[in-house]
C-alpha cells in the first residue's frame, strides 16, 4: 500500500457520480479488463468461468489466464479462440501431475473484475482508518475515471479538482471476506477519532433536501411516483406508499411525505421505522415567524414512525452530523440501512433539483438595500477617523507626541507596546465589523431568506458561511498575519503608499472594501499577504504533523486488546487492565450517553431482542454480579459519610472509621466479572448514569405498560453495553495514534497565543504536541501554574497581594533613568585610562509600592552587591568579544607599525589596537599614508577627550559644591557622623569588590540614586557602555521566587471562591506555593509542566496531566478526540513509572530490534542488537512485516481450525 507500483492495483482521477450507491465505486472498462481475480473452478461456477475463458482478455467479461494445479500458468491468447475453447473445456479435468499428487487442488481462472467485487479504495495521505475503505465495484463501460459518490468525500478528504485515488483488488477469499465484513463502507460510517459520522450528503443534495421539505411543496400522483421510484430503483420488494395529504380537488402529496415514503421503504421490513426528535440546522428565527408552540416550527424536526411530521431536513440530519437521522438509522438498523438511506436521499434530491426546482445564484442574492448601504458607509467613515483615539488609548500618550510615541514603540527592543496597539485596534475593527454586519445581514439584504439562495446555502449548511456573505456584501475586515496586524517596515510604513506611522485602520490592514464593489490595490496586497501565509503554513505543518504521527504509530503499533480485556504491547507488557477504563469501543458506545437515552426508549422495539436478552441472562452470574454491585454501593455511601464527618469527628474515631469503611475498597464490578460475558457488568460511571435516569425519569418516558418499564430500560442498556465491548484483536494503539495524528494536520503552526491581557504567551498547536508527546521535555517553552482560590473573605485582595509577592522584579522596572558619561584620563605617558561614570536614578517608592515587591533599601543593596558584579562580568565579556573580533582583522602578511616600548610594557588588560576605537583603523597598518592619518586622528581624539575630562572635573566640582550646600541642612553632628561612617564602610566595600571600580556614591536620604565610576585601560576599552548597562538592567532580577517570573489574575471558568478569578503564573514552583494554603486551593493546583507534576504529585497525576494537556491543545482549534485514545497514549508513556517520550531514545527500550531498526538510525540499532546478541521473537508488527508474515493484530491474532 505504501508504494504506487504494485500488482492488482489501479490509479486514476476521481469524478463524482450521485447515481451510484454510497458503498459502490464506478470502475472504467479499461480497469475491469486489466484487473483480475483468481477464482477456483468448481461445479457451481464452471459455466461462468468457461464463458470468461472463451471471451479471453479483450472481451468483457473475460479472463486473463488460467493457473494449473501445480502453479503453472496458461496465458490466454486474445487472437486464438480455438485455443481458449480447448482450455475452457479442460477446466474441470485434472491434469496428470495433479492425479499423481496426494494434495487435491483445482484449476484457478484469473477472471476480469466484475460488478460486485470488493475493491479497496485509498487516497493519500492515508492519515486514518477511513482513508482505505472497501467498495463494491460497478463496471461502467463508457467511463474513463473512477466514479465516487459525494457522501464519501469527507472520509477521504477528497474533492474533484483533479484528485487521484488508488484501487486495490484483494486476491484471496479471506482478504475479500475481510474487505466485505470489516473494511466495507457500510461499517466505516463512524470515525474512530471521536465516534462522529464522516459519510454524509453535501452541497447540492443539502439544498435539494431543504427545498423539498419546506412548507408549500406539493406533488401530484405522477410526480410523486416519479420521485419515489427514481430514489428506490433497487429495493427488491413492494414499495409502500403513503396516502395523499390533500384529497380534494385533486390528490396531492407534500415534500415531507415524499421523503417519508423513501425513508420507510429503506428500513428493513421486519423492523419498526424510527422515531426521532431533533433540531434542524436552519434556526427557527431564520423564517421570521415565531410559532406559539416551538415544537411546531420548521426548526424542530419531528419524525414519528418514519414519517416526517414537522421541520426541515438539512445538513443536521443527512450530512456528516452526529445523532442526525442517518446516524440514528445506523445505530438502530446497521450500516447497510444507513448507506441505503443515504443513496436513496441522494437520488431523490438530485431528481428533485433537476426536474422541479433548479438552483442558481444571482447578483440579487448579494445586493443590500440603499438604506443599509448608507448606514454601512456612515460606519466606515466614522471608523476611518478613530485611529488617533485608538492609539492614544493604547499608548496613553498626548496628542502632540503621537508620532514620536509610535516611533519609540516601533523601534523599542520589546514589542509590548505594539502588541497593545494591535490589540486595541483589533477591538475597534471588530466593533466596526459587527456594526456593519448588523446593518447589512440579514435585514439589509435586498432578497430575504428563504428566497435568497446564498442565504439558503449558508443556513442549510450546503456551502459557505456568514464570513463569506460578509466579505461579499459588507467588508473584508482586518487582515491578520500570525495573529497580529500587518507589520511595519523600518520606515514606519506598512506599504510605501501610506504615511509613516499612519494611525488609520486602513494602514494597519483593515480592509473596508467588499468583493461586490471591489477593493483597492493596497487592500488586495494585504489580502494576498494573508493568503500567502496560509499556503506557507500548510506546507510547513504537513511535514511536522506527519512526523509526529509516524512517531506515535511506530511506538503504539503493537498495542492490542487481548482476550482477557487487557491492552498489551507486542512483548506482553500490560498497558491498561481495561481499554479506556470501561472496555467500550468508541464506535459502538455513542448511544450510551445520557442525552441519547430518550432515543433508545422511543425506538426500543427495534433494539430490544427478547430472545438474545434471555440467552444473555441465562449465562450471567447473577448472584456474584449483585453482590459486587452491593459492595461498591456500600463503600461509596460509607466514604461519602466519612467525608462529611471529617470536619467534626475526633482523630482517633476518624482513623477507625477510615480503616473500617473507606480503606477497604472493593474491586470494581468490571474486574470481578467480565463485561463481555455477564449482562449488567458495566462500569461504575455507566451504572450511575442508568440509575440517575431511572430515578429521575426526566422525560417521563419510563412508564409501566406504555413505552418502556424501568427494568426493560436497564436490560436494554445492559445489552447495548455488552455489544459495545471492544473486540479482542482490536489494534487500539494504531487507532489512538491515528486519532491524534490526523486532527493535528488541521492545527495551524501558531506557536504562541496571548493569554489574559496579552502579556503572557502559551505554546499551542503542533509545537506543544511535540513537547508533550515527542520530546517529553523537562524544560518546556512556556511553563505555567493555575492557582485556584479558596472561598474565604477578601480573597481577591489577598490573591492580589500574593500576585505581587511571587512576581519577579527586574531592575529595569524600578529605574527612572540611567546616565552614562565617558571621560579620558591622561597623565603623562604612563597613566592613560578611560573612566565610565554610570548614574542610576530609581523611581520613587510610591510609584511601585503596590505593584512590585521591592523597597529602596533592597534596591540599593542589590546595586552594591549583585548588579555591580554582573555589570563588570558583562563588560569583561564585551571587551573579550571586541578583542577577538579585532584580532581576526589582522593579517600576517602585512608589516606592523613599531610600538613604543613604554606602551608595550603597560599592555592593557585585553590587547587590542592602541586607540581602542574604530575597527577600520587596524586595516590601514603597513601603509605609510594610512599610518600617518591614523596617528593624526588619534592625536585629535586625545585632545577632544582631554577636554571632556576637564569638563568632567568641573562638573564633579560643581556636584561637590552642591553636596556641601545640601549638607548645610543635614541632621545634627552626631547622627551625621554615624551616617558618614556607615556610608564610608559601604563605599569601601564596593570599591574593594573589584579593581575596576574607583568611585561609588549613593543617596543617603531617600536611597533613590547611586553612581559607579569604572576605570578601564585606555587601550581596547572603547565600547558602548550605554547598551551594556541597558541589557544588564533588563536582565538583572531584583526579586524573584525560584522558577517563577510573573503572575496574573485571570478569569476562572471553574471558580469556587466567588470572585471569578484565579492566579496564573509564568513558571512552576509547587513547593513554594504550598506555603500559601490559606489562599490557594491545594486540591486544585495545576500546571502544564508534566515533569514538575510527576516529581511533585507522582506518575498517576502526570498521566492525567498528559490527557488534559493534549485535550486542551485540540480544544483551542475546536477538535474533539475521544478520551480513550488519550488515556491509552498517556498510559503507554507512563506505564514503567516514568514519563517517556515517543522518540528514538524511548525506542531503545523496545524489545524488538527489528521494530527499532524500522524507526530511525537503522545502523545504530543494528550494531547495538548485533553486539548485544539480542533476539527478536517476531511478535511486533514491524518485525513480522519485514519477514513477510501476517501481523498478529485484528484477524491475524488468532487461527481458525476447520473441523472435518
Automatic annotation (TrEMBL):
Cellular localisation: Nucleus, Nucleolus
EC number: 2.7.7.6
An MF annotation (GO) of this entry: DNA binding
Segments of skewed composition (Acidic residues): 900-928, 941-961
Gene Ontology biological-process annotations: DNA-templated transcription
Xref: InterPro entries: DNA-dir_RNA_pol1_lsu_C (IPR047107), DNA-dir_RNA_pol1_lsu_N (IPR015699), DNA-dir_RpoC_beta_prime (IPR045867), RNA_pol_asu (IPR000722), RNA_pol_N (IPR006592), RNA_pol_Rpb1_3 (IPR007066), RNA_pol_Rpb1_3_sf (IPR042102), RNA_pol_Rpb1_4 (IPR007083)
Pfam families membership: RNA_pol_Rpb1_2, RNA_pol_Rpb1_3, RNA_pol_Rpb1_4, RNA_pol_Rpb1_5
Domain called RNA polymerase N-terminal: residue spans: 1-213
Similarity field: Belongs to the RNA polymerase beta' chain family.
Subunit details: Component of the RNA polymerase I (Pol I) complex consisting of at least 13 subunits.
Role noted for this protein: DNA-dependent RNA polymerase catalyzes the transcription of DNA into RNA using the four ribonucleoside triphosphates as substrates. Largest and catalytic core component of RNA polymerase I which synthesizes ribosomal RNA precursors. Forms the polymerase active center together with the second largest subunit. A single stranded DNA template strand of the promoter is positioned within the central active site cleft of Pol I.
Protein's recorded name: DNA-directed RNA polymerase I subunit RPA1
Amino acid at each position: 500500500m505504501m508504494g504506487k507500483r504494485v500488482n492488482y492495483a489501479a490509479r486514476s482521477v476521481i469524478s463524482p457520480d450521485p447515481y451510484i450507491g454510497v458503498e459502490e465505486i464506478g470502475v472504467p472498462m479499461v480497469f475491469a479488463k486489466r484487473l483480475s481475480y483468481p477464482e477456483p473452478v468448481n461445479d457451481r461456477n464452471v459455466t461462468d468461468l468457461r464463458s470468461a475463458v472463451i471471451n479471453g482478455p479483450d472481451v468483457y467479461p473475460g479472463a486473463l489466464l488460467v493457473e494449473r494445479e501445480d502453479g503453472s500458468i496458461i496465458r490466454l491468447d486474445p487472437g486464438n479462440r480455438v485455443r481458449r475453447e480447448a482450455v475452457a473445456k479442460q477446466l474441470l479435468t485434472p491434469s496428470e501431475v495433479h492425479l499423481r499428487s496426494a494434495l487435491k487442488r483445482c484449476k484457478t481462472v484469473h477472471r476480469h473484475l466484475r460488478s460486485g467485487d470488493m475493491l479497496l479504495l485509498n487516497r493519500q495521505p492515508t492519515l486514518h482508518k477511513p482513508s482505505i475503505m472497501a467498495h463494491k465495484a460497478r463496471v461502467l463501460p463508457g467511463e474513463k475515471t473512477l466514479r465516487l459518490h459525494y457522501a464519501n468525500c469527507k472520509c477521504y478528504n477528497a474533492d474533484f479538482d483533479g484528485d487521484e485515488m488508488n484501487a486495490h483488488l484483494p486476491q484471496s477469499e479471506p482478504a475479500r471476506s475481510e474487505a466485505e465484513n470489516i473494511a466495507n463502507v457500510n461499517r466505516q460510517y463512524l470515525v474512530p477519532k471521536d465516534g462522529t459520522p464522516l459519510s454524509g450528503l453535501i452541497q447540492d443534495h443539502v439544498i435539494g433536501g431543504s427545498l423539498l421539505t419546506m412548507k408549500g411543496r406539493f406533488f401530484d400522483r405522477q410526480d410523486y411516483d416519479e420521485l419515489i421510484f427514481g430514489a428506490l430503483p433497487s429495493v427488491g420488494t413492494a414499495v409502500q406508499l403513503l396516502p395523499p395529504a390533500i384529497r380534494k380537488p385533486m390528490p396531492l402529496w407534500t415534500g415531507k411525505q415524499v421523503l417519508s415514503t423513501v425513508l420507510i421503504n429503506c428500513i428493513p421490513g421486519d423492523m419498526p421505522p424510527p422515531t426521532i426528535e431533533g433540531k434542524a440546522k436552519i434556526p427557527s428565527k431564520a423564517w421570521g415567524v415565531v410559532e406559539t408552540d416551538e415544537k411546531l416550527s420548521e426548526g424542530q424536526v419531528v419524525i414519528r414512525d418514519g414519517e416526517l411530521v414537522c421541520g426541515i431536513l438539512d445538513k443536521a440530519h443527512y450530512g456528516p452530523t452526529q445523532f442526525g437521522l442517518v446516524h440514528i438509522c445506523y445505530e438502530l438498523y446497521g450500516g447497510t440501512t444507513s448507506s441505503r438511506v443515504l443513496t436513496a436521499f441522494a437520488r431523490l434530491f438530485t431528481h428533485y433539483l433537476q426536474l422541479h426546482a433548479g438552483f442558481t445564484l444571482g447578483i440579487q442574492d448579494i445586493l443590500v438595500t440603499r438604506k443599509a448601504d448608507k448606514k454601512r458607509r456612515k460606519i466606515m467613515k466614522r471608523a476611518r477617523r478613530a485611529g488617533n483615539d485608538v492609539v492614544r488609548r493604547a499608548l496613553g500618550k498626548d496628542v502632540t507626541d503621537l508620532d514620536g510615541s509610535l516611533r519609540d514603540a516601533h523601534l523599542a527592543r520589546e514589542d509590548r507596546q505594539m502588541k497593545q496597539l494591535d490589540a486595541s485596534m483589533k477591538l475597534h475593527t471588530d466593533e466596526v465589523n459587527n456594526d456593519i454586519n448588523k446593518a447589512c445581514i440579514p435585514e439589509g439584504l435586498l432578497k430575504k431568506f428563504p428566497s435568497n439562495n446564498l442565504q439558503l446555502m449558508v443556513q442549510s449548511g450546503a456551502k459557505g458561511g456568514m464570513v463569506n456573505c460578509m466579505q461579499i456584501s459588507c467588508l473584508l475586515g482586518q487582515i491578520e498575519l500570525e495573529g497580529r496586524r500587518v507589520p511595519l517596515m523600518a520606515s514606519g510604513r506598512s506599504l510605501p503608499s501610506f504615511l509613516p506611522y499612519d494611525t488609520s485602520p486602513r494602514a494597519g490592514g483593515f480592509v473596508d472594501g467588499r468583493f461586490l464593489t471591489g477593493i483597492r490595490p493596497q487592500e488586495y496586497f494585504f489580502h494576498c499577504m494573508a493568503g500567502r501565509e496560509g499556503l506557507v503554513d500548510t506546507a510547513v505543518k504537513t511535514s511536522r504533523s506527519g512526523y509526529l504521527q509516524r512517531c506515535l504509530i511506530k511506538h503504539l503499533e503493537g498495542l492490542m486488546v487481548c482476550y482477557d480485556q487487557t491492552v498489551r504491547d507486542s512483548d506482553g507488557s500490560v498497558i491498561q487492565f481495561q481499554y479506556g477504563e470501561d472496555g467500550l469501543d468508541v464506535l459502538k458506545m455513542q448511544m450510551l450517553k445520557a442525552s441519547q437515552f430518550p432515543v433508545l426508549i422511543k425506538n426500543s422495539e427495534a433494539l430490544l431482542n427478547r430472545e438474545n436478552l434471555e440467552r444473555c441472562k441465562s449465562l450471567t452470574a447473577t448472584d456474584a454480579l449483585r453482590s459486587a454491585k452491593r459492595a461498591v454501593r456500600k463503600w461509596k455511601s460509607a466514604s461519602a459519610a466519612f467525608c462529611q464527618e471529617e470536619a467534626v469527628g475526633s482523630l482517633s474515631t476518624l482513623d477507625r472509621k477510615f480503616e473500617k469503611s473507606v480503606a477497604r475498597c472493593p474491586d470494581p464490578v468490571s474486574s470481578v466479572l467480565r463485561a463481555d460475558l455477564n449482562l449488567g457488568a458495566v462500569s461504575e460511571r455507566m451504572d450511575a448514569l442508568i440509575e440517575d435516569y431511572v430515578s429521575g425519569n426526566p422525560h417521563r418516558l419510563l412508564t409501566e405498560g406504555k413505552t418502556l418499564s424501568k427494568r426493560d430500560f436497564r436490560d436494554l442498556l445492559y445489552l447495548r453495553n455488552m455489544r459495545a465491548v471492544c473486540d479482542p484483536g482490536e489494534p487500539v494503539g494504531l487507532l489512538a495514534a491515528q486519532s491524534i495524528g490526523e486532527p493535528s494536520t488541521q492545527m495551524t503552526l501558531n506557536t504562541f497565543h496571548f493569554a489574559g491581557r496579552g502579556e503572557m504567551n502559551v505554546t499551542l498547536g503542533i509545537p506543544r504536541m511535540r513537547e508533550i508527546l515527542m520530546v517529553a521535555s523537562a524544560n518546556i517553552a512556556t511553563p505555567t501554574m493555575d492557582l485556584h482560590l479558596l472561598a474565604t473573605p477578601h480573597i481577591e485582595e489577598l490573591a492580589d497581594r500574593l500576585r505581587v509577592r511571587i512576581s519577579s522584579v527586574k531592575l529595569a522596572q524600578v529605574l527612572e533613568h540611567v546616565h552614562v558619561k565617558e571621560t579620558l584620563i591622561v597623565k603623562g605617558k604612563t597613566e592613560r585610562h578611560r573612566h565610565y561614570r554610570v548614574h542610576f536614578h530609581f523611581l520613587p517608592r510610591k510609584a511601585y509600592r503596590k505593584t512590585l515587591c521591592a523597597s529602596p533599601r533592597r534596591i540599593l543593596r542589590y546595586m552594591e552587591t549583585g548588579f555591580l558584579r554582573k555589570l563588570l562580568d558583562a563588560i569583561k565579556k564585551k571587551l573579550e568579544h571586541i578583542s577577538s573580533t579585532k584580532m581576526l582583522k589582522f593579517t600576517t602578511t602585512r608589516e606592523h607599525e613599531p610600538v613604543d616600548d613604554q606602551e608595550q610594557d603597560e599592555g592593557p588588560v585585553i590587547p587590542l589596537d592602541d586607540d581602542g576605537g574604530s575597527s577600520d583603523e587596524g586595516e590601514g597598518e603597513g601603509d605609510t599614508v594610512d599610518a600617518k592619518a591614523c596617528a593624526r586622528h588619534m592625536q585629535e581624539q586625545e585632545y577632544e577627550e582631554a577636554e571632556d575630562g576637564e569638563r568632567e572635573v568641573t562638573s564633579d566640582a560643581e556636584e561637590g559644591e552642591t553636596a556641601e550646600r545640601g549638607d548645610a541642612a543635614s541632621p545634627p553632628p552626631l547622627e551625621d557622623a554615624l551616617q558618614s561612617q556607615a556610608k564610608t564602610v559601604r563605599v569601601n566595600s564596593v570599591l574593594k569588590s573589584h579593581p575596576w571600580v574607583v568611585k561609588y556614591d549613593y543617596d543617603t536620604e531617600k536611597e533613590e540614586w547611586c553612581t559607579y565610576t569604572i576605570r578601564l585601560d585606555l587601550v581596547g576599552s572603547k565600547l558602548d557602555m550605554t547598551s551594556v548597562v541597558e541589557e544588564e538592567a533588563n536582565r538583572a532580577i531584583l526579586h524573584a521566587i525560584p522558577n517563577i517570573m510573573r503572575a496574573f489574575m485571570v478569569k476562572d471558568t471553574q471558580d469556587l471562591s466567588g470572585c471569578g478569578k484565579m492566579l496564573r503564573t509564568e513558571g512552576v514552583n509547587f513547593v513554594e506555593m504550598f506555603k500559601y494554603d490559606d489562599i490557594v486551593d491545594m486540591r486544585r493546583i495545576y500546571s502544564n509542566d508534566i515533569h514538575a507534576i510527576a516529581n511533585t504529585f507522582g506518575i498517576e497525576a502526570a498521566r492525567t496531566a498528559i490527557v488534559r494537556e493534549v485535550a486542551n491543545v485540540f480544544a483551542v482549534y475546536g477538535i474533539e478526540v475521544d478520551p480513550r485514545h488519550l488515556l491509552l497514549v498517556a498510559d503507554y508513556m507512563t506505564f514503567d513509572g516514568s514519563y517517556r517520550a515517543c522518540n528514538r531514545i524511548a525506542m531503545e527500550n523496545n524489545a524488538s530490534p527489528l521494530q527499532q531498526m524500522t524507526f530511525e538510525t537503522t545502523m545504530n540499532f543494528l550494531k547495538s542488537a548485533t553486539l548485544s546478541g539480542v533476539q527478536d521473537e517476531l511478535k511486533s508488527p514491524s518485525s513480522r512485516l519485514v519477514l513477510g508474515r501476517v501481523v498478529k493484530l485484528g484477524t491475524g491474532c488468532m487461527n481458525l481450525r476447520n473441523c472435518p
